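hiii, so i know i said id send this last week but things got crazy w the move. better late than never?? heres the sequnce for the chain we talked about at the cafe, plus the structure i predicted for it. fair warning i was half asleep when i ran it
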Amino acid sequence: MGWVAIIIVALLSSLSGSAGAKPAESDVAVIAHPSCQASSISSSKLSSLFGARTTSWGRCKRVRILNLPNKNPTRVLFDKVVHGMTPRETASYWLARLVRGQGRSPRQISKPAVTVRLVAKVKGAIGYVPATENLEGVVVIAWIRKGKLVAP
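okay and structure toks below
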């Protein structure tokens, strides 16, 4: 009877949802400065913010977007899940906006740890990093898990 209980507990643990689950190496945390005071965000709103079509969200009247470099694997996954774009499509999008005088792409930060520190310090900042980063001082507003955007 003891082994059956252990097997059942193990199976139930493996079937549990993403809420409270330990982040996997491939997971991405979408993070915001605590002043935004929001607990989650939709994929369409994220795409609008990171695509510079919207500049405010929640209590943040002026959102400051921080991107990882174009070929960073976390950036590639983020762009695929949030924008539905490949790196080439993302580059074309920003080039077209620049040519039309609609602005430049968001600031690129080379190291995820620096992104976390900046988001923690800069009011209105939003970024994304591998979920395995130390997320002290920021609020997780969404996760990318198994190729899908999910609420925290």
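btw The CA atoms of residues 36 and 70 lie 26 Å apart. thought thatd interest u
miss u guys!!
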